[in-house]
Amino acid sequence: MPSPTEEPAPGGSLRANQVIAASVGHMVHDIFTAFLPPLLPLIIAEFSLSMFQAGVLNVFAVLAFYFNPLLGMLVDRVNLRLLFVAAPGLVAMCMSLIGAAPSYWAVCLLLLFTGIGSAAYHTIGPVFITRSAGSQLGRGMSFFMVGGESARTLGPLAAVGALTWLGFGHMWPLMTLGLACSLYLWSVFRRASTVGATGRDPESLVKVWRALKGLLLPLLGLVACRSFVLWTLMIYLPVYLVGRGYSVALGGTGLAVLELAGVGGAFLGGWLSDRVGRRPVLVAVMLVAPLAMLAFNYSSGWLLWPLLAVLGLSVFASNPVILALVQDHSAGRRGAANGLYMGMAFATSSGVLVLVGWLVDMLGFQTAFAIAACLGLIGTPFALRLPLSTPSE
């Protein structure tokens, strides 16, 4: 008779069904969260928003991530698989109703609930990947992030298609995809558990921070600087391209090109980090991505598209590497460590987006993008301070 919960994958084995399911769930989940950037020009026009107000929308979308450290601590103590499997359905419902929202504040409320589902999935998902991937953690995280990055490619295209065929205010049938995904996740993870099996009692956040601050302090600096490239492009790229004279459809296509290249970057980053180490990959990313953003900002015509591809390949390569790095150093406290990282990452990203929105209002898109790229370069010294070695369990 099967046990009510499953043990982590042994030794070097990789539990493929769970890795694939978590990655598919990540894809479906992020398809819907990727609706916001291509819909942003329409939301701005509908409610006559400034760029600062547009940046505040994303603050609501990531507000729940401020509580990720607490959620991560809870993951180590209580089995939160139900919250994990419900997240894609919740996010799909909220994002497919944005076009029907009657006011700016209604959009903010929908984004707040979207953020709750997103915080749950992105905090719990890496814990399940760690327990399913065995010794192939970089590879497992790559699959997980490929799911997310492929969704960010498909999401803008799906949003443009939904606008064309259904209209801005009638996208609600799309929520069935997210609900079906939640049922699929339940079928795979119904006996899984988020609670650790290392024999170590869950620790307080203060103890976790003290144990991991040698990693988390430089990582915080790196993530903050990376946000000036990553999140500026993810949220403002369609509006930026529309401001340069391109159509809304081409703005969404530009984001799709960035994210499609990001699929390759996500897979390549994790694969390389298993072979050459986490730190060398992150140092390379923090050099290449900001320089590519500067080149993109001052280019025009057909050159924009290959530069977007280089940007996507480089900046998204960091995602699985950072997640694997956090899990490498968090034995027995995986949920709390991942929650601390996610809380830091999204707290900094929301501040960055509001700042960039203010810079756009004050200085224009080109100057704001140039400043963001230069601030991104400051992340290189932080990457050089990350630990080279992985502690034993």
Automatic annotation (TrEMBL):
What are the transmembrane regions?
A: 78-98, 104-129, 174-193, 214-236, 248-269, 281-298, 304-326, 338-359, 365-384
Bilayer topology annotation: Multi-pass membrane protein
Instruction: Specify the domain of life of the species encoding this protein.
Output: Bacteria
The GO terms this record gives for MF are: transmembrane transporter activity
Keywords per UniProt: Membrane, Transmembrane, Transmembrane helix
Localization in the cell: Membrane
PROSITE patterns attached here? MFS, SUGAR_TRANSPORT_1
Species for this entry: Desulfoferula mesophila
Q: What is this protein called?
A: MFS transporter
Give me the Gene Ontology terms describing cellular component.
plasma membrane
| Pfam families the record matches | MFS_1
- Using the record's annotation, list all stretches that form the Major facilitator superfamily (MFS) profile domain: 18-391
